[in-house]
Amino acid sequence: MDRWEMFIDFFLIAGMSFLAFLILVLIKSKVHFSKTILNIFFINAFFFLLYYYSYLHKIRITGGIAILFGHGVGYLLGPSFLYLVKSLVFSKEKILRPYLKSLIPFTIVFVLCNIPLCIAMTTDYLDSYHKVYITLEIPFNILENFFIIYYIFKTLQFLNRLRISIQENYANLSSQNLQWYKHFIIGFLIIVIIDSLLSVYELFFTVDLWNIGTIIAFMLFFLYLYLGYKGLYQSQILIPSFLLDQLDETKSTLNESNLVTDQNTQKEKTIVRQLDSLKPQEIEKLKRKLEYLLKEDKVYLNEDLNLTQLSEYMNISNKKLSELLNHYLNTSFYDLINDYRINTIKERLENGDAEKFTIISIAYDAGFKSKASFYRIFKQKEGISPSCYNKKFQQVS
């Protein structure tokens, strides 16, 4: 065994050991359903590494086991991408049935391909089946990759809708920010595209499958490390029920079909808002109450303030407050609260507070939770960084 193979051997053993430890910790601990789905990715990575370890050492039994639980997993991981995100906002009872339904293609592949291939690899039976499968392996792999890509784009669409809903309820997005997950699935998409291109290349040219598999194994392992680091600490995202209804694809599809089928009444196509029943004077009263809470009580200084808490201060439902912001003030909760925070920081900078305190401490006092989100929002709204704004104001004064 040369040095390269020794390094690969060490990497595979270390990787499998780490993943096995992670899997056992998640299985033994009582965790949220999202962590159960997360564990599927770690289990997949374990069997992926086990397959290449078996290939390197020509071990038929472990290779067969790896094939049994690690082959055709694109049909498992594709839906798992989508339902991992959904599990952060929906209850287990809400998503379990559609999640299991989406795994029907994987079940078919497991029964018709994985079990026979496992038997063929570990015994002398079904050898003819194995030979036939080898001729179809590359088209099968390409089809599997297209399946994953389909679910990746569905997940990206859901993430975009979820981001909008989160901004309707939160001003600080540090614990609700799923940008990391978007990076993960885009990274996975890149790996899938590379694997698909190599599979197409294999149709016309002979390539060393071991080298290709090693590269893909390295890429997937480090991507799963990123997923584990971020995913294990991702908390449940609490969103008001009326915003969850907007995210519920089943409900929205049902509503759309009802509107299309019943075309006799135009009223059914009109969205009924709770504030429509109020008089203009009552709407103005709500606006003044909101302005008082922000300008006098300065509720925006609370870093954990969300839509529901603010609605409780106003003695109205969170849905009514959302309608007030969106349809009568032409803003969102996220923009409104952060506008007040940025204006407070600008006022303090203009008063020379930056000479006594750091800019980031001023930002924390104004209600921001993290340095990164503060700098991003400030630059987004003012066009320059906080430090540049402070220097610019000092030069003017």
Structural commentary:
The chain is mainly α and 397 residues long. It folds into two domains: 3-242, Rhopdopsin 7-helix transmembrane proteins (Up-down Bundle); 270-396, Orthogonal Bundle (Arc Repressor Mutant, subunit A). It has 18 helices and no strands. α2 (33-57) runs antiparallel to α9 (209-231), α4 runs parallel beside α7 (127-169) and α7 packs across α10 (241-247). Residues 252-270 have low confidence and may be disordered. Pfam families: HTH_18 (PF12833).
Features:
Homeodomain-like_sf, mainly alpha, elongated, 397 residues, 2 domains, Arc Repressor Mutant, subunit A, single chain, Rhopdopsin 7-helix transmembrane proteins
Query: How many domain units?
Result: 2
How many E strands? Answer: 0
Would you state the CATH class of the largest domain?
Mainly Alpha
Q: Helicity range of the residues?
A: over 70%
Our count of helices gives 18
Q: What gap, in angstroms, lies between the N and C termini?
A: 72 Å
Quick one: overall form?
A: elongated
Named at the architecture level, the CATH assignment of the largest domain is Up-down Bundle
Topology order in helix (H) and strand (E) letters: HHHHHHHHHHHHHHHHHH
Q: Averaging pLDDT over every residue, what do you get? A: 82
Classify the secondary structure makeup into a structural class.
mainly alpha
**Proportion of beta-strand residues:** under 5%
Low-confidence parts: 252-270
- Main sheet: strands, sense, barrel: none
Could you please say which CATH topology of the largest domain applies here? Answer: Rhopdopsin 7-helix transmembrane proteins
Radius of gyration: 27 Å
